[in-house]
């Protein structure tokens, strides 16, 4: 059983999620226009694309192929300080729970200077909220601060958010937003 320290994950079925009174959101990325997305591994045969196959809002979402990381740098804001959760919608069309890796990067760029975490996504459509309150460590859970920088992630200077699909089938990501 994994323990969660700074990150708390809440998933709700899209049909059952009601808007919380007084909560406001700031869109980060809705995938409605094309932009460059870094993928890892760079020579993967899996598909990373904007697609009309499935979307929760608008007309498109981001399709992340099997065993592929999508690194998103095109966001409406890099200053996340005024917000508590990062919210997004994931569709897992497979019949198995998929492990999704999550990376958050500020102005520091090496692997162990990123916030590294992950979560499971059961089959279906889910809204995920990642709690940004409290300091976010650099490096892996239970192995923080292995790089040269020993300060928490600077939420006022977010430069990249990444999602790694560890599953054997594609998943779909849509509606990245910050909630306050």
Shape, per Cα inertia axes: globular
Q: Structural class of the secondary elements? A: mainly beta
Termini separation comes to 30 Å
Q: How large is the radius of gyration?
A: 15 Å
Largest sheet: 7 strands, antiparallel
- Could you state the order of secondary-structure elements as H and E? EEEEEEEEEEEEEE
Overall pLDDT, averaged?
Answer: 87
Number of strands: 14
State the gist of this model.
The protein is an all-beta fold and 180 residues long. 0% of the residues lie in helices and 42% in strands.
What does this structure look like?
- The chain is mostly beta strands.
- The chain has no helices and 14 strands.
- The protein has strands at 9-13, 25-29, 38-40, 48-51, 61-64, 68-72, 85-92, 98-105, 115-121, 124-131, 139-140, 143-144, 160-165, 171-179.
- The strands form three sheets. Strands 1, 2, 4, 5, 7, 10 and 14 form a seven-stranded antiparallel beta sheet that branches. Strands 3-6-13-8-9 form a five-stranded antiparallel beta sheet, with no helix packed on it. Strands 11-12 form a two-stranded antiparallel ribbon.
- A hairpin with a 2-residue loop joins strand 11 and strand 12.
- The chain is globular.
């Amino acid at each position: 059983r994994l323990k969660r320290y700074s990150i708390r994950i809440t998933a709700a079925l899209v049909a059952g999620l009601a808007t919380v009174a007084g909560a406001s959101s700031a869109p980060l990325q809705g995938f409605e226009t094309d932009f460059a997305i870094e993928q890892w591994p760079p020579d993967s045969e899996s598909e990373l694309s904007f697609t009309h196959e499935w979307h929760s809002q608008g007309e498109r979402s981001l399709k992340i192929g099997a065993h592929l990381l999508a690194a998103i740098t095109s966001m409406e804001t890099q200053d996340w300080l005024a917000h508590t959760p990062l919210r997004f919608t994931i569709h897992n069309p497979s019949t198995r729970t998929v492990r999704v890796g999550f990376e958050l990067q500020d102005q520091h760029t090496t692997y162990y200077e990123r916030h590294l975490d992950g979560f499971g996504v059961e089959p279906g459509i889910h809204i995920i909220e990642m709690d940004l309150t409290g300091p976010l460590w650099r490096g892996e859970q239970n192995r923080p601060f292995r790089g040269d920088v020993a300060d928490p992630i600077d939420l006022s200077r977010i430069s990249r958010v990444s999602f790694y699909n560890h599953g054997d089938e594609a998943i779909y990501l849509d509606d990245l937003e910050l909630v306050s």
